[in-house]
Amino acid sequence: MPGTEITRELYWNVVGTGFPVARVLSYVLAFVAVVLFIRGLFRKGGLLEHIKMMKLASGPDVPRVDNTGERLKFAITEVFTHRKILREPYQGVAHLFIFWGFIALFFGTFMDFFQGDVIEPLFHTNILQGGFYLGYSLITDLGGILVLIGVIMFLLRRYVNMPKWLDDKPEDKIILWLILVIAITGFLLEALRMQATELQPGNPMNQYVWYSFGGRLFALLFSGLSIKTLKSTHLFMWWFHLFIVLGFIIYVAYSKLLHIFTLPANIFMHNATDNPALLKAMPPEMFETAETFGIHQLEEYSWKDLFDTEVCIRCGRCVAVCPAFMTDKPLLPRDVIQNLRDHLEAKVRLAVDASGKVSLIPEEDYKGPALIGDVIDKDTIWACTTCMACIEACPAHISQFPKLIDLRRYLSMMESDFPAEIQDVFKGMENNSNPWNIGSHSRADWAKDLDVPLLSKKGEAEYLFYVGCAGALDDLNKKVAVALAKIFNAAGLDYAILGTEEGCCGDSARKIGNEYLYQMLATTNIEVFNGYKVKKIITMCPHGYNTLKHDYKELGGDYEVYHYTEILADLIKNGKLPLKNPVEGLGTMAYHDSCYLGRYNKIYDQPRNILNAMNSGTLVEMKNHHEKSLCCGAGGGRMWMEETLGTRINQKRTEEAMDAGIKTVCTACPFCYTMLSDGIKELGKSEEMQAFDIAQLVAKAAGLA
Amino acid sequence: MPEILVYAEVQKGEIKKGAFEIASKAKALGGQVSACIIGKDVEGLAGQLGKFGADKIYVVDGPEFENYSTEPFVQALAHVAGLVNPSIIFLSASAQGKDLTPAVAARLKVGSISDCVDLTLDGDKVTAKRPMYAGKAYAMVEANGTPQVLSIRPNSFGVEEIAGAGAVEKVDVSLDESKIKTVVKSVEVAASEAPDQTEAEIIVSGGRGIDGAENFKLLEDLVRALGPNATIGASRAAVDAEWIDHGYQIGQTGKTVSPNLYIAAGISGAIQHLAGITTSKVIVAIDKDPEAPIFSKADYGIVGDLFEVLPKLTEEVKKIKG
Amino acid sequence: MNAVVCVKQVPDTETLIKLNAEGTEIATEGVKWILNPYDEYAVEEAVQQKEKAGDGSVTLVTLGPDRALEALRSGLAVGADTAVHINDAAFAEKTDPYATAVALAAAVKELEYDMIFCGKQAMEDDAGQVASILGELLELPVVTVVVKLEVSDDKKTAIVTREIEGGHAVIEVPLPAVFTAQKGLNNPRYASLPGIMKAKKKPVTVKTVADLGVSAEPMTVVKSMSLPPDRQAGKMIEGDDAAAKAIALAKALHEEAKII
Q1: What span, in angstroms and rounded, lies between the C-alpha atoms of C143 and C135?
Q2: What is the ipTM for the molecules in this complex?
Q3: I want to staple B80 with a disulfide (CB 3.0 to 4.6 A). Which of A365, A507, B36, C87 is the partner?
Q4: Model-level pTM?
């Protein structure tokens, strides 16, 4: 057979010709390591014990293991492409190197075992030879080098350039050092062997040494050493490497390394609904029967919520992107998850009996820290803008902020415990179906000087233009509603509004946790929509868009919902809305992505396409855009709350616009429009900067304003 | 010619302007006008009422009437009403009048009509116009039974001085102590000489645009320049922001006012606020936003920065007032 | 500590007020009805006093048509225990503060109470009379526009602070007594969901004129109603800058409007 000389001796220098003591011993040790690993999973405070608690969790959930094929495909793609992890290039590349490096090393180690303990004893042949051997050699060395580079990158980040949002526990560094030692000892091992064999003059492998380039380079350290020294050092290194690797395997069960298993599992069980920020369903009949609403005890979460906490490796990406954290508010999504995990462990300790059985502690017997207040501070709960940046950033597909909404639900519905200013908002929604408590009779006043058809008069229309509270009642945003009506009229769109029959969509109420109020508002709207047999809806507000499109389905309202930017982009593309007049004075402009359009509904292109079609100004991007766009600060009901902690989010975002040298900030959301207009005023930049809603600019470009 | 009894309220040693307004109106309606004044050391004040149409003035004077307390005043006024036997009783719808009117009417076993802004008389029968729904509607109301007891919103009628002097008669009222159950422990009144918003002739009000408690000073300067009948007011936004006490709030859940001049500075004009000022004679609005709803109700509007407009306006007012 | 709270259902304060065709009362079509906002302070105070005392019950009494039950439910949802609903066609046509107070007094007499609370006024007729008449009929002291209330330890007296012109007066009053609640007395709570659900099951007794043995004869009669003339936008003062505008305004107020 050609090339039989191109191979290497397995267990070289470790196993002699007699009984393979080292070989057997290494298997025994590996077995012990696996046992210890499994023991780690079942230990006090281990994953399996926590899973017992998860099984007791009572919160409702969506299916997690349906469409197995789809899920498997998704999980495999996510894991192997590192799609989300690579969103942060530095950490992404580092992790990708370690991930693929370890796969290569695992492949190499497996081949060793397969050849040495399966093929050789059974078939007395060697598959690790010739070209295959060289490839195998190259791949494992490449893997080792990737691991080495990756782990050094991570170590540099930990020791030299640690971001402030990253937390630091002993295990973080232990893991990195373990990996570093494994990689280095692996190479040293290879180098020692090569120096003693392949690199010796006359060795037939002499010409192939660069296929093991890692080992070849490390061998430079050993040039000139005697064979004897090389062999004894190699033997020591072999055992040392083995012990470190086995220790590493055991440590997987005791550290965040367990994510090697739990994280792919979590990705497999990802939220596969079309609603990316899924809140727990509360079927209407629940309000008649249930005794408690929302969550104030850990076990009221769903098992998946608790499993999420097990998966989190504290990478901190959710923290880095959180607008509340960026403005010094006491909300770090990672810490919410981690605190829940610690609380889970603490509760398990109280709930487990001598036989290891975990049972629920009755509420009245529980004396430990309270979920709301002790484990998660109320200020944390109310700081969230529901911008979804955390969910979007999380490579582990953990659902962070909805866990806070569960707590808000308890506070709002059970305790009436919310920021004082919210009471008037709720009352306004109850009495006049808008958060300002402006008389509901004035809901169509914005349109009174325009030719805007009322559905009640028109009878039917292709599109219902659902204006929303801001467009209908807020002075600033009425201008946007007017611009849209003029555009629709000019483009000959078959549409109508509901006028005073329109009500609040309920998004803010829902995100503040008042699901009861939200459902009252939603069902009223759905009755009206269905009464007119509405099929297609255009919304002005992304919050209404998301709510009508996704949330109303749970309550029997199923419509084709469009945001106005989708409609305008189409009208412009199809030539139905000629933009003949370039708009003067826009200068450098940027589109500020609305969270509820972008991250929630992946509408990134249409607003930009519209702006590009105007041939006005110069469109650039701010530092944070598309899925990394920074919230304006108004989502999640924060629009109606005072911002008393830290600095103001709208100012932070306005500063980002300033830093990008932008004159015109373009929005497609009434909340964003309000917040950024205010941000410009608050920072005293009214001379240099301006905010416009895209609809206003389009109206100008179309010669309608 | 109906017999009309007018209750003249005394505050800080003075008869209130509202008393002169209702006395003048009673006279203008063509009534036989009696006035009743209750307090401590008030006898000397009584004569003034004659100049505003009171033909006879009943004085109830005593230390027990030093501070207003519902029951003693009800007894005193009911006692005088017993002497006069009027077909109509007018009170001013001041803070005190609002407390006293329904109580004294109930003592006389009749109903009353609150906060009237206009009156017509047909024989002995009064028809009163009064705002309801915080000024969003008016009702024409008549009272069954005698006397007809009405409280009149301050500033609804002008005062008319006539050449006349009413006869002053001191009345001794022996209070039924068994019915007096409340004790006034203390009274705290701000030192300010400014009239109550409901009675001021000029109100300068600040809203969200004032942007901070410290900036109310701009309004105070203007108020001082405008004279003793002017006072400060505020919109709900300013009160909710805790820039100023709730006592200053104008509008629904605050005070409903009818001054001759209402200056709204930095008030956008929410409907709740507009409802409370709609009976003002002249409304001036100063706001940055040209589309603020307040401008649709204002007689004079200035679109501009109140921090520039107010000081200049104060300066000009001082010049005019000389 | 037992308390009675007299409440009224009124149109939402933001409602656009329109008149009926005859111009005798407001058009009720499309009106959103709520618990009178001042009554919310009254209910809250009663509930807080009950909670502070640790015993007793809060009873709501209202006079109104069927829909007034909703107002009672609102009050029951925030902590009142039971309610009496005076519902009689005799009141449907016209009623006034006096007749209302007579009916309420008859209903209250059958209840146990240490305190009676009312709102300062109903944000519809804005009369502010019922509490005073009620006190007279029940021969109880009345303290109006209360912004603070403290009950003595022996629960025999209360120290209350009421608004007076330009300030406050502190008054000691023996219980039982009638109080009217002013904004600032407390912060009415938002009904919790369990509160709303429990309110649906709390007992509401319905009484008629006959049950109470009273007459529904009013003392005052609304003859007609009108809407205020729509204030028209006046003139906008123009000028080159703020100072010029201020000068022009002062001139207009002095020479044109003749108010300064």
Answers
A1: 9
A2: 0.92
A3: B36
A4: 0.91
